[in-house]
TrEMBL record:
Protein name, UniProt field: Shikimate 5-dehydrogenase
Pfam families hit by this protein: AlaDh_PNT_C, SDH_C, Shikimate_dh_N
Pathway(s) it belongs to: Metabolic intermediate biosynthesis; chorismate biosynthesis; chorismate from D-erythrose 4-phosphate and phosphoenolpyruvate: step 4/7
Record-annotated Alanine dehydrogenase/pyridine nucleotide transhydrogenase NAD(H)-binding domain positions: 100-193
Domain SDH C-terminal: 228-257
UniProt GO MF annotations: NADP binding; shikimate 3-dehydrogenase (NADP+) activity
Gene Ontology cellular component terms for the protein in this record: cytosol
Amino acid sequence: MLGKPVSHSRSPVLHNAGYRAAGLTHWRYTSFECGEEDLKGLVEGLGQEWAGLSLTMPLKEEALRVAALVDPFAQAIGAANTLVRRAYGWHAYNTDAPGMVRALLEAGVSRTRRLALLGGGGTARAAIAAAASLGADVTVYTRRPEAAEELRPVAEALNVDLAGEPWDRAHEAATAPVVISTVPKGAADHLATADWSGRPVVFDAVYDPWPTPLAAAAQAAGCAIVSGLDLLLWQAVDQFELFTGVAAPVGEMRAALYAAG
């Protein structure tokens, strides 16, 4: 795991539990602090024993530039959270978006016409890609008016209809069938007072602290809740399989993740 900071990450717990359960006794997953300016040199200096890398902020865009080949899905999103060593060099993937889809599938969402998105940062890009997989139009509520426009190229590349709304109307997100919050902790706390009686599926990408006021209020109203831990699990499952070529032991990985909390 590379990023800055990474000391808080539960990814080593997830992956190492998977290696143990799968009998991959010689595999090990660790983490290093790395900034954008250091990524290229670090990747070029890795020995052949390195099968892959997980990347978190602020490296997800820089990963596209250091890769020999970029998966079309990651290219459309404009961010990669995974580098896998291939014979031709490093191949960049994005497992955040399929991780979101798998987390929503567990919550009973396989298709939806409309999705409300809170926030316009890097995770929001993955949410738009998840919306494409679910067949949904997206209404995005952002704190910066220009953030919605910054997401538009992603939406266009993925054939998603995108509408932007100001942050002071974010309470209207509660009327959508699916709500994904990608804003930092605390930013959506005021939405605990929104009207959640329509019982949308609410996906809050924050997992520390948990539950957030938003998630707690929505759950109390009867909404199905998806947490950032669910996303962390499913994006790691796809990474595990890309790195190893082995089916991920999802149950053991999930148990280790929740035990670590």
